[in-house]
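Hi support team,

I submitted a single chain yesterday and got back a structure, but I'm not sure I'm reading the token output correctly. Could someone confirm the output below corresponds to the sequence I sent? I've pasted both exactly as they appear in my results page.

Thanks,
R.
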Amino acid sequence: MNRVNPKALLNSKWTAMLVNNKEKHFIVIDVEFDDEQKVSLCVIEAVINNQQYQINWRDLKDPTKWKIGWQ
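Hi R., thanks for writing in. Yes, this is the structure output for that exact sequence:
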């Protein structure tokens, strides 16, 4: 399991294990917190084409989907 700290998500880099549309490397560009300081929004952006996706930040913990850093 990838260790992910919600407060360190912004600008973190990730590599997708399943590549779609040649989108392999991503960067977290937006993280919003609710009143209880829980993540309410996480947006990643593909480096190759700047396509943005809203994801559940907990999916980043799954090593079958994501690796930390660009590899």
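A quick pointer for reading it: Residues 32 and 39 are 6 Å apart (CA to CA). Let us know if anything else looks off.

Best,
Support desk
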